[in-house]
Amino acid sequence: MALLLVPALVAREGRAVAQATSDAAASSSSSASSSSSSAGVTDSSMTSAAPFGTAVRLGALPSPFASSGGLEGPAPLPRGLEFTPSIGLSEEALVGGFPKSYGFDNEFITSLTPGLRVVGTAPIGRVSLDYRPQLELYARESRDSGISQSLNGSFETQLIPGRLDLSASAFLTQQATEGGLAPGGSAAIAPNARTTTQSYLVSPHYRYRFRGLGRLDLVYLAQYTRQTGNSAALSGSQLPYFVPNDVFSQTGSAQFTTVPLFPDLDDVVLVTASQDTGTGVLDGSSQMRAEDRVRYAFLPQEFLVVSGGYENLRYQGFPPTHIADAVWSIGLHLHPRRDVDIRLAYRHRDGFDAPYLRATLQLTPRTTLSASYSETLATQAQAIAANLAGSTVSAGGQIVATGTQVPLLLTNNSLSVQSGLFRTRQFSIATITRWSRDRLSLNLVRSDETLVANAPGTSGFSQRSLSASATFSHQLTRSATVSAYFDYSTLDTPQGGALAGLGQSPVYTGALTGTYQTANRLEFDLQLAVTNTSLNGYGVSPGIAGNGVQASITFGVQKVF
């Protein structure tokens, strides 16, 4: 949203014209990249997913040695490109809670995971890529054996210094089709109950400064998003709520940011248009928005921001969705100190009124807080694409929001994967507290999806989830670390859904992990994890899964070259 993405860089009293133009333009880069999502007119509010970290294979937890990134700011990239290959081998023993074709509920999974991390800055640009395909071999249910993949990547370069930039991103992961798990994934489930989600984008950004007038930013974004896996239907229904889908989106935006019209006032005009080609609700859909935003600095780093304009949105589906309406917003952007940034607004867009919040602040020298609230109109695949467009990859291989560096979770394993169009309300809050050898993170996320339209040939249902989690890690020595993780999650489908009849039945997940790293970059991991799965769908009745509790012990070794 152009309204709230302009950073507080204009001083209260008259600043040189060239500096004012440069400051406003630096902000437009962020707003353009966030607005240029698969939806075209969506904005960075869709990047406010709870900071649970990068999604990985279900059942895997991040290593305590992984780059913390996130709220403390980005880790600097090394000069030149560093190529770091690795190979990992693990054995996971599962007891209970794993659905089997022949009634087994125990399993042994051997995983071989080669990996490649490329990070650094070079003449070709800034690169951060982490790719980890994984071969999974199931001892008892051999037909489940196969390859899963995880990819996070970003690339930025200047084609014409100061004028033309090019950025690209790639994302690939797997999520639980029926949902009902911790958002980041915490239980092992069969491959036929997973959805593979991938999204790729490339975006050139041209900027030109008109001396004494302002700055023009032109952005084009091409993005391809695909979700594959087995179709999923409700019990007794002939129509699936999820089918494999893909969409190719093209978005163009133009933004002009004026020099200060008066010592405390500037103006931004933004026009964005998007066209989608693919399947389902997004096949042949289009979105256009034009708005004008005025910002007034009532204090040197505190702003009143007001905008107004018009939008025209079209989505296919049943019923077809067409919104031709005015858009407006009034809000505040508070940036009194470097460690405080708060954007708060009440706005009308996507056909409804809603508040908006995005804030990061340093509560104490050791504790940082991040909070967000947004309401958007989009498909799940569209929201993932928009989040990717407003993110980058840290030096540690973690997906973070552009600018704030808050970790993002692009897929949410609490929610069932669906193909329809939703009005999504999402609130998240997270804190990270650091000591010399300890780290504590607390996370809360509430997601509410209200069904607006079904994709042709599918059914759908509204759903809402709540998740609260805590992670504590302690560094025993320079080589050894232990960590504990706990998550409480619920999924409620009031209209009847994948977990219908279970109400707001909770899922509890706990894990203890120990890691030891040798001087020759050999890492040993031991993890104990327990989660109750009897209240999840998993495609089977709880009786097949024994007592419904899945316990696992995993031993792994990884060599980094």
Automatic annotation (TrEMBL):
It comes from the Bacteria. Residues 22-44 are annotated as: Disordered. This is PEP-CTERM system associated protein.
